[in-house]
Design a protein that fits this description.
Helix content is 65%, strand content 7%. Among the domains are: 216 residues, Orthogonal Bundle (Hypothetical protein af1432), CATH 1.10.3210; 73 residues, Cation efflux protein, cytoplasmic domain (Alpha-Beta Plaits), CATH 3.30.70.1350. The protein is mainly alpha-helical and 516 residues long. It starts with a helix and ends in a 12-residue tail after the last strand. Strands 1-3-2 form a three-stranded antiparallel sheet, covered by helices on one side.
Length: 516
């Protein structure tokens, strides 16, 4: 680009020179005026002009040379591009020729495959005709149609498959049963670990020690007025003739018995034993015991994480403090059962809150005073007065299997109750009462016609009845079993469930004599 600038400069100089020449011509055409005299400064030399012209020519020559070089370079580049285009065109032509060749081969293959397909179709048609021909011959020989033969084959296959399926199903059932038993043991073991409690039961003491023998006379009072007043206001009988240094308290209500015990101990400590003082002390003791029971109920609820229950229910739960079932304190049993039930509910993905409330409230009917009926019915009737979930009340109603289980939660409450009550050491019973109860179970079954023998087994939790097959037939057996069950429920108090197993067995005996 430098030589172009030089050319432009030369052209500009020539243009300036032409303008000057034109100006001189115009000046010569006008009349000459006298010029002012100016001091002479010297004229330009002709050598300088010739030098400038020479340089201009050199510059023009250089520009022409540069232009020529550019032109040659452009021509060379154009020739190279033309050669590259020719090569590209040649490659394209070669590829087109290759594609034409491949297209021809594909057409050949397609024609070959079409001919083979026609041959195969012809062969299949021939095979189908042969098949029909041979099937017709087979039907004629066997005397069976195609459908009849198909059914025979399917029945044989079905039988073989059925036997195989039965074997597999039995194997799976056995394996599942083993795994289920292992899992059940694991769940129960885990639940029992969670059921461990640190509660120490407070057993009610029904015997009050006296400081001296004279105290008995003061308790009896003049003409027995003190003991009559005490019995009247407490509802508890005093047995004072058994031992010289103690008095026994007798009442079926453990709360009354506890109120009487505490009141009597306070009267003995106070020394002022008279009807008015007895009434005052007993009234104060009742209030104190009610506070203690309410606190015990609150503590029980908080230990199992149940809050905001109605105060009537909390007060009734507090009566568990002085209630025992075959030696097992009700608070101990409830805490233990609730912890086991909650652990089982978590393992079985059941509703934990329903199980929690069901376990807590399942035995509340046992402490409802002055009402007749089973503790299950009394508990359901009492809880129905409050806004409790239906599932909780169902769990209470079904925890002794008096009704069919309506939910998994009811079954968990039943299992937790059975585990807590039946574990070794949980409950105890007087030996003579125990023997008497077992004998009563056997006698209740033996009184029915057709019963040969009856045996109380598993600590009285099962009664096994042997039936005379000649006296009772199979149709009468369910009715007899039901009658035995009703008789036991009506006459005998049982700590839990009793299974009645009635067995009717007929044996035929023959002897094969040896031949001599």
């Amino acid at each position: 680009m430098g030589f172009l600038k030089v050319i432009l400069k030369v052209l500009n100089k020539e243009e300036v020179k032409e303008r000057e020449n034109g100006k001189e011509k115009r000046e010569t055409s006008q009349p000459k005026r006298p010029k002012p005299k100016v001091p002479s400064q010297g004229k330009p030399s002709s050598s300088i002009v010739s030098t400038a012209q020479t340089k201009a020519k050199e510059i023009i020559l250089q520009a022409k040379e540069e232009a020529l070089k550019i032109r040659e370079s452009a021509q060379k580049e154009a020739e190279e591009q033309k050669a590259a285009a020719a090569q590209a065109k040649e490659r394209v032509l070669k590829k087109e020729a290759e594609l034409d060749r491949l297209r021809g081969r594909l057409e050949e293959k397609e024609n070959y495959l079409t001919s083979q397909e026609k041959k195969i179709e012809a062969q299949l048609t021939q095979i189908e005709e042969l098949k029909k021909k041979y099937l017709t011959k087979i039907e004629e020989v066997s005397g069976l149609t195609k459908e009849e033969a198909k059914q025979i084959l399917l029945r044989g296959l079905e039988k073989s498959l059925r036997d195989e399926m039965v074997k597999r199903i039995q194997a799976v059932e056995e394996k599942t049963k083993e795994e289920a038993e292992d899992k059940a043991r694991e769940i129960l073991a885990t639940a029992l670990v969670h059921g461990a409690i640190d509660y120490v039961p407070e057993y009610t003491i029904s015997v009050v020690k006296l400081p001296s023998e004279d105290m008995k006379a003061r308790i009896i009072g003049r003409e027995g007025r003190n003991i009559r007043t005490f019995t009247k206001v407490t509802g508890v009988d005093l047995e004072i003739d058994e031992t010289p240094d103690s008095i026994r308290l007798s009442s079926f209500d453990p709360v009354r018995r506890e109120i009487a015990r505490v009141a009597l101990e306070r009267l003995i400590a106070d020394g002022r034993i008279q009807p008015s003082r007895i009434e005052e002390i007993v009234a104060k003791t009742k209030k104190d015991i009610e506070k203690i029971m309410y606190q015990a109920g609150e503590e029980l609820c908080h230990k199992v994480k149940v809050y905001n229950l109605p105060s009537e229910i909390v007060a009734m739960l507090g009566r568990f403090k002085y209630r025992f079932s075959y030696g097992q304190n009700m608070i101990t049993h409830t805490l233990e059962e609730t912890k086991i039930g909650i652990a089982l509910a978590y393992e079985l993905k059941a509703d934990v809150n329903v199980v929690r409330l069901g376990c807590l409230l399942h035995d509340i009917g046992k402490v409802i005073p002055d009402r007749e009926g089973s503790h299950v019915d009394l508990g359901v009737e009492f809880l129905s007065n409050f806004d409790l979930p239906k599932a909780v009340i169902n769990a209470v109603a079904e925890h002794h299997e008096d009704k069919p289980f309506s939910s998994v939660e009811s079954m968990i409450v039943y299992v937790a109750d059975a585990v807590s009550g039946a574990r070794p050491g949980a409950r105890y019973e007087d030996y003579h009462e125990y023997v008497k109860r077992l004998k009563s179970l056997e006698d209740a079954a033996k009184q029915f016609k057709g019963v040969k023998e009856a045996y109380a087994l598993q600590a009285g939790r099962e009664i096994r009845v042997m039936i005379d097959p000649e006296a009772v037939n199979d149709k009468e057996l369910p009715l007899l079993t039901h009658k035995i069950k009703e008789e036991i429920e009506k006459k005998i108090t049982i700590p839990g469930n009793v299974v009645v197993n009635v067995i009717r067995e007929k044996r035929i005996k023959e002897v094969i004599k040896a031949k001599h």
